[in-house]
Write a sequence for this structure.
């Protein structure tokens, strides 16, 4: 999080009241969330920013994040990713009555370190003035194997290289070595925060001098504030990819990415490559603004998932820091032919979209390009369609970049995009049916015996038994 001095007056008032820790097994009131479903529905959890979600080897998904009041550390878990929406939330720890952890609590992350559950978080003192933003990184530790039922107590302060503003810590193990990565303001560098990495001796102590990985210098990293923060790691295709957040926490907030070969020395800054452009940004077509502070997990099929927060409107009243509407969101993370992550765009509110692949033409997709539908290749966002419940077990297929439209079939077999507002008949309704070899078919409700199909590069209706009407969903 980036910190303008204009926030200090509000910060002082918001941080004055100390609260007691919730007892093990008790829950705190949480904002209303969407109902649990077989597949996640965005937003996954409302009013939870800086989201960390991971699937542990006990089969549970765990989630923590910043609450709008910045006064407590919370945790919830579920057997399914979608179930996090309605899972009970336990308060693990609350800010103290006075001292360095009596004000804001930010960006918690839960990690199993040397066999113990440790939650890292950033905190500052209450009382107003500049001291409110004396943010440092601390940790609490669980006294048992179950973080949802065990007792939590203060462990200590992270021993950072400098006694300066630092936050957004994460930890990961690579080739037998545990590393710590975080954001910090380094004395002598005119930025709000840079990114660092170092191996760990124990949960709070580094075992070697830190390496500076990134300074905000590119135009998209310095909009509003000069910020690199919130590192998150995913290992895939022989490389480590470290995402981070940049710029102010309004609609300009975005994700950048560093990468390195998995055999390289992580402590050599020259071995890392910074993407010259942001990898994930605001998307007005899908109405998600300021996507950032992400984590990575997998879905029930083991496919990579991106978790992040974002608002569903652009204009913020008052200070962005105290706006509660940064919601936790999740979506598929794809990889390109070179093995690099392709984040696409924030997919917007509603059920997770899919990509439809002709079963007899692998490598092509159903594509939306403006008002036109085709079959071919295109950027990921143009190939993602959301199945909207149309009643009686039928769906309407809506492109994420035109969420107010859906596919509609005419009697002559042509398929076009029609406004959802006028979709009151059967032309835009399809019945999703299982086919052979894991394929699916979208049978037209309006035109019996015919289904959504492809003909060359065109999208149209064909006989339901035609192989061209078989699709694979990705």
């Amino acid at each position: 999080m980036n910190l303008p001095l204009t926030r200090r007056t509000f910060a002082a008032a918001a941080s004055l009241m100390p609260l007691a820790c919730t007892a093990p097994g008790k829950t705190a009131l949480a904002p209303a969330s969407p109902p649990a479903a077989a597949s996640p529905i965005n937003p996954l959890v409302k009013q939870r920013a800086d989201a960390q979600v991971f699937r542990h080897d006990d089969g549970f998904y765990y989630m923590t994040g910043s609450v709008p009041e910045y006064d407590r550390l919370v945790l919830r878990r579920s057997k399914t990713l979608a179930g996090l929406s309605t899972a009970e939330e336990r308060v693990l720890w609350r800010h103290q009555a006075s001292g360095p952890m009596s004000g804001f609590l930010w960006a918690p992350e839960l990690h199993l370190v040397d066999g113990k559950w440790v939650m890292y978080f950033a905190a500052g003192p209450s009382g107003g003035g500049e001291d409110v933003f004396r943010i440092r990184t601390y940790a609490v530790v669980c006294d048992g194997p179950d973080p949802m039922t065990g007792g939590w107590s203060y462990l200590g302060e992270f021993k950072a290289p400098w006694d300066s503003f630092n936050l957004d810590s994460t930890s990961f193990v690579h080739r037998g070595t545990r590393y710590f990565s975080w954001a910090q303001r380094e004395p002598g560098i005119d930025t709000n925060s840079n990114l660092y990495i170092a191996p760990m001796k124990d949960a709070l102590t580094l075992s070697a001098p830190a390496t500076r990985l990134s300074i905000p210098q590119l135009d998209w990293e310095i909009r509003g504030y000069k910020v690199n923060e919130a590192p998150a790691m995913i290992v895939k295709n022989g490389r480590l990819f470290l995402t981070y957040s940049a710029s102010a926490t309004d609609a300009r907030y975005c994700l950048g990415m560093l990468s390195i070969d998995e055999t390289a020395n992580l402590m050599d800054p020259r071995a890392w490559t910074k993407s010259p452009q942001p990898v994930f940004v605001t998307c007005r077509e899908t109405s998600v603004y300021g996507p950032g502070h992400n984590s990575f997990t997998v879905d029930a099929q083991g496919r990579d998932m991106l978790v992040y927060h974002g608002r569903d409107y652009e204009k913020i009243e008052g200070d962005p820091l105290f706006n509660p509407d940064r919601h936790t969101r999740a979506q598929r993370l794809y990889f390109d032919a070179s093995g690099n992550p392709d984040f696409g765009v924030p997919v917007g509110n509603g059920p997770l979209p899919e990509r439809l692949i002709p079963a007899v033409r692998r490598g092509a997709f159903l594509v939306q390009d403006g008002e036109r539908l085709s079959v071919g290749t295109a950027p990921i966002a143009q190939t993602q369609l959301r199945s909207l419940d149309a009643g009686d077990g039928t769906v309407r297929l809506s492109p994420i970049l035109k969420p107010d439209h859906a596919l509609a079939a005419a009697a002559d077999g042509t398929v076009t995009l029609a406004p959802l507002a006028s979709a009151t008949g059967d032309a835009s309704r399809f019945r999703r049916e299982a086919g052979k070899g894991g394929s699916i078919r979208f049978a037209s409700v309006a035109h019996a015996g015919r289904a959504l199909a492809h003909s060359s590069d065109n999208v149209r209706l064909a006989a339901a038994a035609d192989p061209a009407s078989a699709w694979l969903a990705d």
Remarks:
- Residues 8-14 form the longest helix (7 residues).
- The CA atoms of residues 360 and 467 lie 7 Å apart.
